[in-house]
Amino acid sequence: MKSRSAPFHSNTILSVAILFIALFYLGSDLVSHNWTRADGSKERGVIHWDVISYYAYLPATFIYGDVTLGFLDNPPEGFVNDAKFWFMHLDNGNRLIATSMGMSVMYSPFFFMAHGLAPLFGEARDGYGSIYQLFLVLSSLVYVIIGFVILKKLLLRFFDTRTTLITLLSIGFGTNLYFYSTHEAAMAHANGFFLITLYLWLVIRWYEKQTIINTILIGVLLGLISLIRPTNILVLLLLLGYNVKSIKELGQRIGFFLRHYYLVLIMVAGFILVWVPQFLYWHTITGHYIFNSYGPFGGRFYFSQPHIFENLFGYKKGWFVYVPVMLLAVLGIPLLRRRIEGMFWPLLVLMPCMIYVQSSWWCWWFGGGFGMRTYIEIFGILAIPLAATIEFASGKKARWMGYAYLSLLAILIIFHQLNTYQYKRNIIHYNGMNKEVYWKSFMKTTCPQDFWQSLTLPDYTLARKGIYVFYLTGNKNEDLKEMGEEKGQEELAERIRADQKLSSEVKRYAKRSGITMEEAMDEVTECMYDQMVNK
To answer: Which of 85, 116, 274, 348 could form a cystine bridge with 223, CB 3.0-4.6 A?
Structure first.
């Protein structure tokens, strides 16, 4: 499909909108200045939690000269590993960085700039000063704004300026892309948004003209997308299914790839090229070129027990609860059947696959975070059905419908910004939310009474086994303490047996592990007792 030609003034309006998004994001960065360590805090600016592992490859390789982290046994003078490096000790004695190196690839241009500038700002070239963290924040801002520029071009292929403008503003301010491009800027999500939006744009262009450059770029992008977050390899479905409108056309598409096998080989070569450093790293650390680096941490998928409802609508992290604009986007997919049929079938297949896979991960709430952050990377794709809903509502003869829909979007954007404020002020908790706490906190600007006593925190040890237990923070479990350990564990065992869902999870764990139900119950009750009594 050929691109719509946008008049000069239309491009100007959209460019101003993207500039406004950029300035708003930059302003949020300047206000929070989260590249510096908070006063009295031991926590480093933005290099914390997952970012510690994402980033570790760069300083380990280019500053300390040892990606195996062997230098930690005899560190340089003045070096203290105060959570600079996280790793898993393997049975062979080596240290493994769990995450793959995709984010280090994305950080690298900004890392090298910071490394060169550090002496000019009187900072040590240690990889962890404020200058390095500032440039990580800037990297997210640059990538996300480029992502919006590409998204503008993508939307203008199908929609008019007005629809494109409203869609850009909805994605920019009505979703947690904003939070993960500013307050948690060094996380992977803004980078993924940029890469997948660029990938979709290139896929569309590739079907118009299969140049060698575009073919290589698609392979490289797929490699980088999956190197950052392996489950995002599912966007391969867009390449396979774009503009396929029937089973017959699917057969023709397969024939097309068979006839143009050399293009497929070029894509595969580009994909593998990106992964070669990761394969070499794994081989150095583990002796295997392909390795499940999350395995030693107990990370796995439980495809037989996906938590789909909780993933989408649960109070803990539900995608549509905390980012309701995306519910409108997903509901807009059927509109593509007539409006942009070439996108309808790929999205109709991609979204259930994506939801199923994300819901099957052992930690289906994905640790601490604001909303179901794992879907942020595909917001550029979902902008298309969201735009379709805007166009549909605005195109009705009854003008009130368009006004009502735009009013709804405005309300949802304001609501999301309030949610963002609440999250930053700990009025929305990073992993302890539940129905009671959600409604206590709803639309509040101060922390409600009994908030901290009403949270339900997950048991990560049991979750890795596919057993999901959440502990009420306000429950001191005095009854179990008074019983003593033996009777307390017996009481917990009875509670588990009385809970059909929990009992089934324990039974599945026993079967997977090849142990008896009694042995599994002993493991679970011991773990729960320790958490509930000795926490």
So the answer is: 274
